[in-house]
Design goal:
The chain contains ten helices and 13 strands. A hairpin with a 2-residue loop joins strand 12 (397-398) and strand 13. The chain is mainly alpha-helical.
């Protein structure tokens, strides 16, 4: 039976309702966040807002306080759900590295063999608003990350416009849920302010109705005091977080960029002005998800693994090396043939000179035994021919010159000595 994408997902995410909702691996922490919201609001509605139903001039106007608290809480919980249960902008992984970026670097190992190694450029440049920006290659997802994309080590995914991984919502904050995250944080801040204000107002009501002091009113409604302290402490977190993200939105930064590049004094190529930055976050259309978690897995055509590609490249390099060696051998053989021809020419010239000299001397002197001379020359000539036809391994190209083997030099010396011997005999006669 074919499986769906969420069933074979390689990230660390958790899926619910057969892939309809996606959470981070720390989705259990979301229960803590729910308790931190629901429990205080429940206490407020039961012990504070209920007593304010008739605290205003219209007799039943106080019900609005209770209704507003419940509606505001539901709204905050909805924003929390939209932040944590949706795809934050995950970029699908590749099943193989990008072929257009594969390069082979030939390295020489022991024995003089060339072994190609697979190489990937770690970064490459893309243009953003006319400025070159470096993007990195993700070895896990086997993609070049788009600008402002980063790999979350917790979710094990590359996320577009990665801001940070928030453990309180159990999800990465990225391109597709940043708007809901900010609205959740800012709405939680307003909810804390509302609960704090209504709890303080209830203490004021108790003071006015019973003409008591602040301390007596606080003793009469300890829930109000606890809620005020809780909301005051919470405001330092959610309120501070709201202010920080207002600054990030106005300058078009992410939390990741602010913490990492703040000390580098880099130019922010994404800043389009305060108004346009806010419009980009809150008024732009949210891009659809690049992942279809409920779709059936498509079987890809089997591709040759990198190992076989590596072996093919090695075989090609070895074949190229053999061709080079074959060309070298052919070149050496041709050069040896030329050397043999030169040697034969020199031998022919030496014999001709001897014959000419003998003829000249034969006309002026006594007749010598030609068979003796012919036997000497014929034996030397045969030895020269045998030496020339035998290709000696010491013959080769060295520093653009040819070196003749010692045996050939010895043969030439014997020819010279034979010629000298014949000349000496002629002189004696």
């Amino acid at each position: 039976m074919a499986k769906r994408v969420y069933q074979v997902w390689q990230g660390s995410n958790k899926f619910f309702l057969r892939g309809w909702f996606i959470f981070g691996p720390d989705a259990k922490s979301l229960l803590v966040t729910l308790l931190l919201i629901i429990v205080p609001v429940t206490i407020f509605c039961a012990l504070v807002a209920r007593h304010l139903r008739h605290a205003f001039s219209p007799y039943n106007a106080g019900y609005a306080v209770l209704v507003a608290a419940i509606a505001f809480t539901i709204y905050v919980l909805l924003l929390l759900f939209l932040t944590s249960a949706r795809d934050p902008g995950i970029i699908p992984r590749n099943s193989h590295p990008p072929e257009e970026e594969i390069r082979y670097d030939s390295s020489v190992e022991a024995g003089g063999r060339h072994t190609p190694s697979l190489q990937f450029p770690r970064t490459k440049e893309v243009m953003v608003n006319g400025i070159a920006v470096k993007v990195k290659y993700c070895e896990t997802c086997m993609i070049y990350r788009p600008p402002r994309c980063s790999h979350c080590s917790i979710c094990n995914n590359c996320v577009e416009r990665f801001d940070h991984h928030c453990p309180w919502v159990g999800q990465c904050i990225g391109l597709r849920n940043y708007r809901f995250f900010f609205m959740f944080v800012s709405s939680s801040t307003l909810l804390c302010i509302y609960v704090f204000a209504m709890s303080a107002f209830y203490i004021k009501v108790l003071m006015d109705n019973q003409n008591d002091t602040v301390w007596k009113a606080m003793k009469e409604s300890p829930a109000s005091v606890i809620l005020m302290v809780y909301c005051f402490v919470s405001l330092w977190f959610v309120g501070g977080l709201t202010g920080f993200h207002l600054y990030l939105i106005s300058t078009n930064q992410t939390t990741y960029e602010n913490f990492r590049y703040r000390a580098d004094n880099r130019i922010n190529v994404y800043d389009r002005g305060c108004v346009n930055n806010f419009l980009e976050v809150f008024c732009s259309k949210i891009k659809p998800s690049k992942n279809k978690f409920r779709a059936y897995v498509q079987e890809e055509v089997q591709r040759p693994p990198l190992a076989s590609t590596h072996q093919a490249a090695a075989a090609a390099a070895e074949e190229e090396e053999e061709d080079l060696n074959a060309d070298t051998r052919e070149k050496v053989e041709d050069d040896l043939g030329i050397g043999e021809d030169l040697l034969k020419i020199s031998q022919r010239r030496n014999i001709e000179e001897i014959d000419g000299e003998l003829c000249d001397r034969g006309s002026n002197g006594p007749h010598h035994n030609s068979s003796e001379v012919d036997s000497v020359l014929d034996s030397d000539f045969r030895s020269l021919t045998i030496q020339a036809e035998t290709r000696h391994p010491s013959w080769g190209r060295r520093s653009s010159s040819w070196e003749i083997a010692p045996e050939v030099l010895a043969t030439n010396s014997r020819v010279t000595e034979s010629r000298s011997h014949v000349t000496a005999r002629e002189a004696n006669h």
